[in-house]
# Entry
Amino acid sequence: MIRGLWDRETVASLLVAAHLPLALFWLWYGGAEAVATVLLAALVLAGWHLVFLLARAQPPSLSGIVTALAVAVLVPQDLGAVRLVLGISFGAVMGELVFGGWGRNVVNPATVALSFLGFGFPAAPWPHVMEPVAWAALATGVLGIAAGIMPAGVFLGAALLAGVAGAAGALPAEELLAGGLVLVLLLGDPVTAAGTALGRWLHGGLYGGLLTLFALGWEGGAPVQMAVAAALLASLAAPLLDEMAITLWLARRRRRHGGT
Amino acid sequence: MARSFSFWPTLTEPLIRQNPVTLQILGLCSALAVTTSLATALTMSASLTVVLTLAAGIISLIRRHIPTTIRLIVQIVIVASLVIVIDQVLQAYLVEISRALSVYVALITTNCLVLGRTEAYASHNGVVPSMVDAFGNGLGYSLVLTIIGGVRELFGRGELLGRQVLPLAEDGGWFTPLGLMLLAPSAFFLLGLLVWAIRSVLPEQAEAAEHVPPATAEPAE
# Structure
């Protein structure tokens, strides 16, 4: 993305725009506390983007707003400002900024921050997903796919798996709502999703499969917690899935056209 | 062999500039495993330093008599004997800590740091330089273990050497322990941050970049 309209910040601003319905619904139902959380998260992220701009000349990105929203929506409750700042700092720095900023990271900074807070403070209760917010996430996903900035294959792969699991009765409604919300917020990030067509389907499928597995076998796990864990594992596997897709494609090419 | 030996640099170089853990990334297995508390980290550091120093001395003493073809076997036998002695001493006098360290004291035998120093230095140098070098490397390893162990215990439990330093929230204080610090990944994070910090201060330690970004910069928009 060097020429024309589509540079990194175009994608980031479209992502922010696509997240508006989700953000509005969530803020509407969350009230003042939600506003405070998302503002705090955005402030911390802006601070770290500024630090890395000054120290390593990495341009800051609007994608920080999406990260802040994802963290604020999914973060465990009753953590308090200090722990929140700690977790978000860890996620932003270790998940994104040390790799060179948004666009070069391997895992979504919000996923890292949420996992850090989840493992670090296991006693904090995870939020419940309200149904209207999950429907707004659907709208966000549709907008993102229509604008071409969210990976459609990931969503379809996950939806396919979730549909099969739901039809078999393995995925309760609560997990389904949390899973959908996390799918849009964390896996919809175009940077950390798999890049190839087949890889994206596999990525979404892996996420759906892991979520089903957790829903079946994770005693005492909260739905959002399961979804975040599935998102973390799936995004760690994404490069591998891409690699597999490319290897398959090369093998098919070789069979079709010959060559060594 | 006839290299001029100066005592002070040989002792202090491995502390930071040539640190075996943060520069050469050796001996990580134990460094990450035993650092959940400061006490185990200190015991492990002391054990490794003693073993390394004695092994380097013994190997250096008999270095002209070890046949080259079996030198690794001889070195491992010497190191293993010393490790067994240390392990027995720990079991006799520090039962609790010995139990907490579990197999990692015995695994000093296969610690690449020990074998690295005996093979690379002690088998080519005199007794005194070898022991000084080994002691310095042991101290470098200890330094890293102490830092990581201290940070993990402090933020994981709010304690240092078993004494409460930060008042816990459940006892009316303000500190909530960070459970993640007691899990294995935090040791990786902390070590990574430590290496990052050291290489920021001493840029000559940084490795050459594997990839160079394309020269055409994005136009400012």
Remarks:
- The radius of gyration of chain B is 20 Å.
- The mean pLDDT of chain B is 84.
